[in-house]
Amino acid sequence: DGGITQSPKYLFRKEGQNVTLSCEQNLNHDAMYWYRQDPGQGLRLIYYSQIVNDFQKGDIAEGYSVSREKKESFPLTVTSAQKNPTAFYLCASSIIQGLNSPLHFGNGTRLTVT
Amino acid sequence: AQSVAQPEDQVNVAEGNPLTVKCTYSVSGNPYLFWYVQYPNRGLQFLLKYITGDNLVKGSYGFEAEFNKSQTSFHLKKPSALVSDSALYFCAVRESDGNNRLAFGKGNQVVVIP
Predict the structure, then answer these.
(1) Per-residue pLDDT tens digits for A53-96
(2) Which of residues 32-91 of A touch B (CB under 8 A)?
(3) Can you spell out the DSSP letters for B22-72?
């Protein structure tokens, strides 16, 4: 089945450590996205990529970094510079030129930093 | 930039009664509108979309939405709610300016009471 796989489902880290969240898709989509979800705030865009080896900052990119070395993969690193990293992180993908194309989401990674 | 407002935090409805989840949007061009549903600790699932054409859009699981250009609204509806419809619902809008970004509302928790 085609889809988006995020791993791990739950992640625990100590404050001051960098952590990388995995996102892999086999939908052959060009565009990939990372969103952060906090209770009562909806989804906020962190980074997005429309093509391999290129990505753009979203609305809350500070303290995060990404890479897009392969079409299928778009890992997100939460750095120690992110002030409040505990959240639910969602990866998504879509057809690049499809304004009417919905985003397909993974099942998320819940990150807890203590 | 495009934006979405979902004015209610929670919608309570008795099983079998009609369900409405409200959404208003703001864009400078033509809107591409979407509704998603999220179950606990899962990613978002696509329900339906409005691109152009008929103002009443039918989607998955018996849901439909009505586009109203003069009121800039895109309310989600279901004629007869089920307990299994209890979830978090997100409205989203994509602007036709080519950046392919999707702006989400903060979400509405729907509780269907048996």
Answers:
(1) 999 999 999 999 999 999 999 999 999 989 999 999 999 999 87
(2) 33, 35, 40-43, 45, 48, 50, 58, 88, 90
(3) --EEE-SS-EEEEEEEE-TTS-EEEEEEE-SS-SEEE-GGG-EEEEETTTT
